[in-house]
């Protein structure tokens, strides 16, 4: 489900898309996801105890962090950014309540930006291609071992046909609720999350290979130098920080017997507005609604189980680049009591995100 409204024409007319592309191309090689090459920019690392995968920089032991962009899609496409998040309530008479032990995360499904320039479309598609290359490499290894495993990808399709190129990228947030004395920088898989329709496949069902295309900056001279320099400004941290915690009921849909927290609070995620200021939970739903253009700093992981493998992008920072012109989606009805009775080091990617600014710029032919 694409958001395609004339209200987004300003992103072309005012050079928003061109500016984003300029800044992505100015990042160090391989930081932008579409510019990275698996096994050249970063490599897989296997945990000896869990057999899960993380991905580290090719030439250093540091975990690889990347930057990607996209437009937030609606709940119908798989976005789950709410008080319940990706928590699986269950289908039986006794629901899985959300207590202090529950690991609840949000999920943002990103699509190609609306009314984008050709270069912006290529930018998004190249990100999908990088993620796809990792999947394909893993599938080849599984086939050599003659091992049949269900794969849940970090990309997905608009419909049930998974034979074509994926259209969406799924990104998980950090943990929404935590006890302030025990918060850990963990961005792994939540066992309770449901598999998005069209997001999984067997080792035999991969779609056609995605080919990356070259990005070309608007406004470059013959030597490839930008004709306009980028500006930066000092970041300013308000009283609220990423170490802050809030009462969970600051979220308007946090109510009912499903929620049984005792000590856990709502953690302030590193979500920032166009001025690089933190967005507090009371404004999360309005600032991160369908149609919002975002840049995300994330790490890549894969979780191996007996018969399935789950690939997951885990966001560390979400930065709003341009607001949405679409109304906020109505909140989903939560389970009522009656129903329940019946039931740090700064990385290169981090520094790059701080330098991103979207001042208006004219189009250059």
Task: Please describe what this structure looks like.
The protein is α+β, with helices and mostly antiparallel strands. Helix content is 16%, strand content 21%. It is built from six helices and 14 strands. The strands form two sheets. A five-stranded mixed barrel has the order 3-4-7-14-13. A three-stranded antiparallel beta sheet has the order 8-11-10, with no helix packed on it. Strand 1 and strand 2 (53-57) form a beta hairpin.
Secondary structure layout plus pairing:
Layout (H helix, E strand, L loop, with lengths): L9 H4 L2 H10 L16 E5 L6 E5 L7 E8 L32 E7 L6 H27 L5 E3 L2 E2 L11 E8 L1 E2 L21 E2 L43 E2 L18 E3 L3 E2 L11 H4 L5 E12 L3 E15 L14 H6 L5 H7 L11
Parallel strand pairs: 5-14, 7-14, 12-14
Antiparallel strand pairs: 1-2, 2-13, 3-4, 3-13, 4-7, 5-9, 6-7, 8-11, 10-11, 13-14
Share of helical residues: 10-25%
* Class computed from helices, strands and strand pairing: alpha+beta
Q: Radius of gyration from the CA trace?
A: 20 Å
Strand content: 15-25%
Strand order across the largest sheet: 3-4-7-14-13
Q: State the shape.
A: globular
Count of DSSP strands: 14
Q: From N to C, what is the helix and strand string?
A: HHEEEEHEEEEEEEEHEEHH
């Amino acid at each position: 489900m694409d958001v395609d409204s004339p209200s987004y024409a300003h992103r072309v007319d005012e050079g928003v898309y061109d500016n984003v592309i300029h800044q992505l191309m100015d990042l160090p090689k391989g930081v932008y996801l579409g510019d990275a090459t698996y096994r050249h920019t970063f490599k897989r690392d296997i945990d000896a105890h869990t057999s899960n995968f993380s991905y580290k920089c090719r030439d250093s032991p540091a975990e690889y962090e990347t930057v990607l962009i996209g437009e937030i899609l609606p709940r119908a496409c798989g976005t789950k950014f709410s008080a319940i998040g990706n928590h699986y309530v269950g289908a039986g008479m006794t629901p899985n309540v959300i207590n202090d032990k529950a690991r609840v995360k949000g999920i943002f499904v990103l699509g190609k930006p609306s009314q984008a320039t050709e270069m912006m479309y290529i930018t998004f598609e190249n990100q999908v291609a990088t993620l796809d290359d990792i999947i394909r490499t893993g599938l080849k290894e599984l086939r050599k071992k003659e091992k049949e495993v269900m794969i849940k990808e970090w990309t997905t399709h608009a419909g049930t046909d998974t034979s074509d190129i994926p259209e969406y990228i799924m990104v998980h947030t950090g943990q929404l609720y935590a006890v302030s004395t025990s918060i850990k920088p963990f961005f792994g898989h939540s066992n309770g999350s449901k598999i998005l329709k069209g997001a999984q496949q067997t080792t035999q069902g991969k779609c056609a290979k995605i080919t990356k295309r070259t990005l070309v900056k608007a406004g470059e001279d013959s030597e490839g130098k930008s004709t306009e320099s980028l500006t930066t400004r000092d970041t300013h941290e308000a009283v609220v920080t990423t170490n802050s915690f809030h009462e969970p009921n600051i979220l308007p849909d946090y109510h009912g017997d499903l929620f049984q927290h005792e000590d856990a609070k709502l953690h302030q995620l590193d979500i920032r507005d166009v001025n690089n200021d933190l967005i507090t939970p009371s404004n999360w739903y309005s600032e991160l609604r369908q149609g919002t253009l975002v840049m995300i700093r994330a790490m890549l992981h894969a979780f191996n189980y007996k018969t399935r493998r789950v690939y997951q992008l885990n966001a560390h920072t979400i930065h709003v680049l341009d607001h949405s012109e679409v109304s906020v989606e109505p909140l989903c009805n939560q389970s009522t009591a009656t129903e329940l009775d019946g039931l740090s080091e700064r990385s290169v990617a981090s520094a790059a995100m701080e330098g991103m600014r979207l001042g208006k710029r004219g189009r250059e032919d």
